[in-house]
């Protein structure tokens, strides 16, 4: 989730029910620590605890140094990334590329656990490829090293994000170790979260891409798991308020110019998830300053919520179809 789970987005997700949010990936290479990008990724000012920082690298001593560096800057949990399938990361023998070298996995985990006095967690996939699944073996290595918890994305490195999620492998991992295990992969609805928990026996679920443009998914899942009932979706007014608050924090964090550029993808996710993306894409892209971008957002929502006459009694306020009427109006605008 590099480029997505920055501090403003993490804080918003925590406000909306996420019990735990991990930072963007921080490279273990110390030559990168002085860059603006890394400084932002290690900026936790005002962040709600626990502060978790994810690190990635292939050299045990460098990864251990990175862990110490981040703990000194406020990290309360260190998460090691051995799950990223991106070519840029794997070409550096980091991320999920490490799963093909179990002795190196053990060396990195041992070094990091010994280096810091905070909990160390691990994110993995089910193996390098469908022909070489080794998640259970890696999970046992992690437990022996003292890893506090394990998140498993139910696909191999080779599968990237395509194909079915192997929740049977996640179940096998959970049965093989005594540390907490979190299931990850294509969990996009409260019903799916409950199904995955029942199928795998996992201690929790980890949400990634499904939160893009829909950070309230966390409260929806929590409510459904606690009550068995669906939580009403946010109103159009609430979504507008959340977006404006997110953008305001975003500009303060990145500065005006970069903030506007980085915010565009979030806005496209928000509006696309609401069925408004195509209608307002050009308008959002045209905003060059925070003020222009905020005006564009307001106009999008003003048009989306504009009343339209209807002869259908199901569209009356309080009817079962009324909450979705604005989506249809926006698409017609």
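Q: What amino acid sequence fits the structure above?
A:
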């Amino acid at each position: 989730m590099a480029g997505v789970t920055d501090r403003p987005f993490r804080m918003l997700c925590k406000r909306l029910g996420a019990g735990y949010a991990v930072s963007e990936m921080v490279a273990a290479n110390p030559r990168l620590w002085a860059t603006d990008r890394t400084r932002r990724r290690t900026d936790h000012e005002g962040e709600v605890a626990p502060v978790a920082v994810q690190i990635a690298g292939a050299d045990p001593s460098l990864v251990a140094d990175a862990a110490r560096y981040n703990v000194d800057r406020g990290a309360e949990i260190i998460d090691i990334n051995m799950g990223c399938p991106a070519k840029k990361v794997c070409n550096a023998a980091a991320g999920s590329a490490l799963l093909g070298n179990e002795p190196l996995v053990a060396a990195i985990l041992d070094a990091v656990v010994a280096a810091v006095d905070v909990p160390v967690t691990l994110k993995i996939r089910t193996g390098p490829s469908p022909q070489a699944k080794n998640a259970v073996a890696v999970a046992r290595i992690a437990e022996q090293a003292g890893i506090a918890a394990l998140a498993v994305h139910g696909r191999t490195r080779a599968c990237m994000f395509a194909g079915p999620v192997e929740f049977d492998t996640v179940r096998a991992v959970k049965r093989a170790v005594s540390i907490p295990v979190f299931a990850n992969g294509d969990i996009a609805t409260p019903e799916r979260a409950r199904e995955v928990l029942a199928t795998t026996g996992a201690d929790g679920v980890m949400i990634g891409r499904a939160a893009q443009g829909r950070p309230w998914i966390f409260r929806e899942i929590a409510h459904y798991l606690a009550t068995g009932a669906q939580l009403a979706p946010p109103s159009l007014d609430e979504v507008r308020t959340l977006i404006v608050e997110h953008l305001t924090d975003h500009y303060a964090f990145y500065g005006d110019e970069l903030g506007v550029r980085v915010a565009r993808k979030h806005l496209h996710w928000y509006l696309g998830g609401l069925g408004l993306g195509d209608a307002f894409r050009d308008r959002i892209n045209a905003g060059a300053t925070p003020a222009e971008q905020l005006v564009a957002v307001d106009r999008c929502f003003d048009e989306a919520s504009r009343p339209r006459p209807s002869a259908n009694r199901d569209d009356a306020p309080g009817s079962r179809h009324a909450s979705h009427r604005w989506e249809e109006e926006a698409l017609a605008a």
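Q: And what stands out in the fold?
A: The chain is about 50% helix and 10% strand.
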